[in-house]
Description:
Blueprint (H helix, E strand, L loop, with lengths): L1 E7 L3 H15 L5 E7 L6 H7 L1 H4 L3 E5 L6 H9 L6 E4 L11 H9 L4 E5 L6 E2 L4 H17 L14 E4 H5 L11 H9 L4 E5 L1 E2 L11 H14 L3 H22 L7 H24 L8 H28 L5 H24 L6
Parallel strand pairs: 1-2, 1-4, 2-3, 5-8, 6-9
Antiparallel strand pairs: 4-7, 5-7
Helix pairs in contact: 1-2, 6-9, 10-11, 12-13
Amino acid sequence: MISVVLPTFNESDNLAPLLKELSDALRGRYEYEVVVVDDNSPDLTWRTAASLICMYRSRLIVVRRFGRRGLSSAVIDGVGFTRGEYIVVMDADLQHPPSTIPRMVEAAKKGYELVVASRYAPGGGVEGWSRLRLLISKGATLIARLMLLEARGISDPMSGFFLVNRNMLRRCRGLNPMGFKILLELLVKCSPSRVAEVPYTFRRRLRGRSKLGLRTMIDYVLHVLKLSEWRPLKFATVGALGYVVNVLTTAVASIIAPWFYLRNVVGIEVSTLFNFTLHEHWTFKSRRGGSLLRRLASFHGAVVPAIIAQYVVAQLCYYLANLPEYLAILLGVIAGFTINYVLSEVGVWTQRST
């Protein structure tokens, strides 16, 4: 059986045509059911859904939630009402075409535990997006792929249209999603053994209003930070402590080496080793797969371009942009931190601990 979970909020006008499209795509090919989970919509989406039960009978289940809101939690609640081996999650705004589901099911039957409908895989696309909307989507995808190992092999980890095998859900640990991007939660916490992507075209919204807004973006950033175990903040904290270690070491080294250029080298190396140790046991403690010596050498390699970037940016800001010295130094530090963090994510700690 195929179970389709539709989280809804103010989608009353879209529900009847969506259920018709689902019926056209699935009826006669698969046994299926649809679970509508509505967050007590002001436009009475739940009532519209209930009025359609007489048409779809046991194929339609309607859940009305009180006091709880959020797409991701609605999906989790909806899954609890499903019976199918394969569970499809999709939006109820008609932008996800039901005609894609049969291709997703066929991929799942080949042994893929998770099948993602992708806008960015070859053959996929979007309709009617502005450049700003596309830039926001691509930027969010880049953030996910940078901070989450599990998102790097997928072209569209932001997709809200996907299929999961029920067996995979049984081994998920501590699902506690927030915001709209539950797929990221599943990738990180369910560890799917095989993932497939099926291209599709994200359609224009014909009725209703998009839920994308500033609050949605903030929730997304917080969600990714949470899934990453707050690594950027930990990385910054370690960097600040490393700065203190550098200064203290340079000062103490004056006892045996009066030359600043030599003491400074000692301070940089000691602080680099200090930072590496804290990153190993705190910042990236779950990503210590592979050789320790390789990680240590790679981290030294990541420090060098960060120092160069910090120096160059500070000099450019001070001499060319005529910024105050303190601001030039701050911007240099931000540039160096960004490069060091990115290189550490993608080039140093790149494997899960075994």
